[in-house]
Amino acid sequence: MHLIIPKSYDPKLSVKETQQAIRYIRETFQDEFGKELNLSRLSAPMFVDKATGINDNLNGIEQPVSFTMKDMPGKTIEIVHSLAKWKRVALKRYGFDMHEGLYTNMNAIRKDEDLDNFHSAYVDQWDWEKVIDKKERTMATLQSTVRTIFKVIKHMEHEVWYKFPQAVHKLPDDIHFLTTQELEDLYPDLEPHEREEAICKKYGCVFLMQIGGVLKSGKRHDGRAPDYDDWSLNGDILFWYEPLETVLEVSSMGIRVDEDAMLRQLKELNAEDRLSLPYHKMIENKELPYTIGGGIGQSRLCMLLLGKAHVGEVQASIWPQDMIDECEKHQIQIL
Predict the structure, then answer these.
(1) Catalytic residue set
(2) Containing domain of residue 55, as a range?
(3) Residue of 8, 120, 228, 320 with fewest CB within 10 Å of its CB?
């Protein structure tokens, strides 16, 4: 069981008050976030046809929950891991123009997650995607977008303080940018997660860029699917989370692959067989818009702003009984 128990934990809010705070954060954040990035809210699927290639492959080893349907014989239907690919198709299908985008409430099941304070089998996030010009596929575009998202998160800190002053968790005032290679150069003797802890403890909040490719050491900082993020133009928003003295990832995002980056990354992972799938053919044939997008964890944002010790305090999921029992001993109120 992977569980961090903070010393002398005080939830500060009752379960009922926490539910009120969750609703306030979710409703307020999505409105402000959508306005700042020029995004419209869309409905999205909970499951997709496996044959389309639209489901998120994550690190390539996690298996989606799947089922068959009486009226669609011979089809395998998968519950989404995320909507990373679906969103790009939706932007084309619904006729979004340049610099317009969408966001949606994404609910997923990731049955292969290692459950801990931050990871649940149930994933709830704002999945978002925005049309950009090909010439805007740059580090400057990426960093500008990250700063906008950080600004909205900081504004939410003040909003939550006004409503729930006894519970709000203080966030750093700025976000620091560096690449995974720069991080490896700084801490060559540490493992990737240890490097993240060291740099986040130093700066408070970091956008760690260029995740997925092989570093000078011959290792990858972390795995990324080869067919949505461009590994040279992506990253994670990471906070040093004082209540648990560790790193809390709030968002994974990036500029999406163009036809060249997709082919290069598929070759690197020996996954060129995906080129026969409809989604990949659309990218190869330049039929989809160039985009930037990502996901922002709804429950994780609530954890961050309220200083909660476990994601189960801000979402209803399922947990091992020994984890529930241990949390109960320390006033961690699992829903």
Answers:
(1) 56, 110, 125, 236, 249, 252
(2) 15-329
(3) 8
